[in-house]
Amino acid sequence: MVWRHDNEMQRMLRDSIDAHVSANHSTDRVRECREMSAGFDLQEWKSMAELGWTGVLLSEESGGTGLPLSESLPLAEVIGRNLFPEPFVASAIIAATILNAAYSKAFQVIAEPLVDGSRVITLAFQERPSMKSVAEPSVTCKGGKLNGTKLFVPAWSDITDLLVTCVLDEKLAIVFVPGNAEGLVASPTKMSDGSLMTTLKFSGVAIEPENILLQGQTALDALNLAIANGTLALCAQMEGLATAAFDITVDYMKNRVQFNQPIADFQANRFVMVDLNGEIELGGASWRQALIDLEKNGFEAAHVSISAAKARCSEMVLGVTKASIQYHGGIGFTEDADIGLYLKAALRLSSWLGGAAYHRAAAYDMYREGQVDAGK
Amino acid sequence: MLENNHKDMSVLSDDEFRMKFRNWLETTYPDEWKNPVVFRLHGAEETRWLRMLYDGGFRCPGWPRKYGGMGLGLRKQLIYHEELERIGAARNVDTGATLLGATIIRHGTDAQKQKYLPEVLNGDCLWCQGFSEPNAGSDLASLKTTAVLDGDEYVINGTKIWTTMAPFSHKIFLLARTDMNAPRPQQGISMLIVDDMKQEGMIVRSITNLNGEAEFAQVFFDDVRIPATNVIYKVNKGWDVAKAMLGDERIFIGSPSLANQTFTVLEELISQMGKETDELFKAEVAKAFCDLNDLRALFAQVCDAAIRGVADGKTYSTIKVQASETFKRISDTLINVAQEYGASVGHPDLDGFEKDILAFFLIARPSTIYGGASEVQKTIIARDIFGPLAKR
Ligand SMILES: Cc1cc2nc3c(=O)[nH]c(=O)nc-3n(C[C@H](O)[C@H](O)[C@H](O)COP(=O)(O)OP(=O)(O)OC[C@H]3O[C@@H](n4cnc5c(N)ncnc54)[C@H](O)[C@@H]3O)c2cc1C
Questions:
Q1: What is the per-residue DSSP string for A217-228?
Q2: Which residue from A minimizes the CA distance to B321?
Q3: Is B119 annotated as catalytic?
Q4: What CATH fold (topology level) applies to the domain A121-215?
């Protein structure tokens, strides 16, 4: 993995995160968070804000740091490696990307509480188990009232506010909805990693004109970019998670002795781990190239490589964590063993924003459409 | 005397260099060698192509200029290979430049440089590599060919096998045991040069491969005499030289170009068979597409690391395994999608489709065997991950 390379800014960021993690974080905390109502710690969210993490991507005009995505992703990687349950990708990457596109209106009211960690913001856009046609929601905003249902909304909590995609005047729009709005009913489901995935039902929720953040093409562009950014951030998070599970398992295999030798000495086991290491390398390379593509050529050009990256990383993180359980033997199947936490987090991250099968097909379809458009 | 007299292209910008080489290729590269179903140039054809490169000033991109090469950094070397791929150039092994030449430049004497480099440059001399033996393949250090000093000559006895292009080569470099009493098998091996493949005691028996080509051979040495000065680097240090033979250029064995070519043929086949939307194969083709995409990504990242000088052995082994395994998998997909046509000898009986898909499939097979079998590469990677085995 020598080819992974931080620049100055990324290294500084990574150092600051590592310091915070070793002082404040452990798998015990991960377990405690699983018992909390939101599945994460509102207090820790505030500490992360103090360190500048929640505003990392938000433009400086909105009080954030305004780093480019590439320089923010070491955070996602460390968050994955340490199983942080706080909704970094959902809020600080995805929602922040939308806010950046709408900053003139959203500025103080919405962005500032995200920067200071007093609120969490999340984007509600999905209405079915697929990432297809997310730009054509059935939720409507008519006569100042929002109606319809959103599925799979992450980061729901007592302090969460919403950005919601809907159709307004026959065009895509993104509106702001406070979490305590009247007419909003939230039904959260507990997920394998302890986080919540929430169904939101809007029944005539009042939308003030100033809370209509984006409309038409700008809404569409912001949505696409938010999903692209979020998908790559998830990839970075999955790489971090997989690397951690891999290292823990290698360590275990070196120390566990059966048949008078460490189980790490059996060639069959070594080769499985080598193959998985190859998958981590491919995943890491895939999302990094997709990121270069995105920052250089924009999300339309980068769709193919982003989907390929998500497909690889989703499959890779599951592959690594499943093998991790296998090589831990019986202890791997216990509630007490930390390695299980990695598998459960992997399950959640790999399926969120589309799993491997979906994205492989999507990458190939979009590639073919591109070929047709180019007249090939 | 060896100095390259052509203009120094290392000072051009990357784009200028790319366009210069592209233009040259477009005007010079012979049409009959483009996108060959036969993959490689042999013998006189290879000599002709090397000579064209030489005359055009595009020979030996990685060699320093003072030895007649182009003196290009890794980034421009990559561009060089990309442009060859773009024009659909036939591959050639060019063992003389990539292995022998690079090693002579690093470890050879002045006399060896004067003698061997010019004829590699102008294509007059083709080389082959005699490392593997019938009983020493992956475990190369167990090799048994001997070279015994007799006055100022070495006398070589033994046999080498799978020697690529031996039937077309003029010279061979080989590993032979020069100290029979060395404590470890890796010690007591020297790297030697035989100046004439046709000299007394040499027999080359070509071997037909699974794809029907007689590219490699078994080479027999029966009291073959060579001057004692035909040792590369030091006597009994041949193992060290062999290990370091491929420097940065190791990266090219991880190039996605074969996987890429195969995918292009897969696309043609799919469209020829009208199977663009066939659900039966869609997932498999999508997987091939993503595999290729990610291999390219890994190659790009590893190249960047190599250019920064930080790529390590594990990384090179990883990219070698990934490139060859991906090439094989995509060729498997090609055969699967072709259904009944998959086993056709020559190109399948499909209107206007002239690609020999069976050849792609067959030629992909040994990619995980030569240059260090996948299992051997994985053993190297595993040692890096886990450390050495606890027992032993
Ligand atoms: C097309 C082609 C061109 C070649 N060109 C040349 C050339 O120009 N010059 C030259 O010197 N050689 C050449 N070779 C030889 C090549 O380097 C050897 O084939 C290779 O090193 C493997 O050796 P082997 O064939 O004896 O197989 P073996 O060493 O007998 O291995 C057979 C198989 O056993 C498995 N295996 C081996 N070791 C291990 C291990 N440690 N753990 C697990 N599994 C293992 C692998 O699957 C391997 O494929 C060429 C080979 C091919 C196929």
A1: HHHHHHHHHHHH
A2: A278
A3: no
A4: Butyryl-CoA Dehydrogenase, subunit A; domain 2 (2.40.110)
What's the CATH superfamily of A218-368? Butyryl-CoA Dehydrogenase, subunit A, domain 3 (1.20.140.10)
Quick one: pLDDT at residue B363?
93
Distance CA B236, CA B191 (A): 8
Q: Tell me whether A67 touches chain B (CB under 8 Å).
A: no
Which residues of chain B are within 8 Å of residue A306 when distances are taken between CB atoms? Answer: none
Residue B118 burial (10 A CB sphere; 0-12, 13-18, 19+): middle
Q: Which of left, alpha, beta for B153 (phi over 0: left; psi -120 to 50: alpha)?
A: beta
- Amino acid B36: pLDDT: 66
Active-site hit among B85, B153, B213, B249: B249
CATH among 1.10.260.40, 3.30.300.180, 1.20.272.10, 1.10.540.10 for A8-118: 1.10.540.10
What pLDDT, in 10s, does the model give residues B153-173?
999 999 999 999 999 999 999
Domains of chain B: 9-92 (1.10.540.10), 127-237 (2.40.110.10), 254-386 (1.20.140.10)
Q: Token pair for residue B12?
A: 């051009």
pTM, whole model, 2 decimals?
A: 0.95
Q: Is B39 in the pocket of ligand 1 (CB under 6 A)?
A: no
Average pLDDT over residues B70-81: 94
> Between chains, do A285 and B385 touch, taking CB under 8 Å as contact?
no
Answer for the pair A21, B329: CB distance below 8 angstroms, yes or no. Answer: no
The closest residue, in CA terms, to atom 44 on ligand 1 is B375
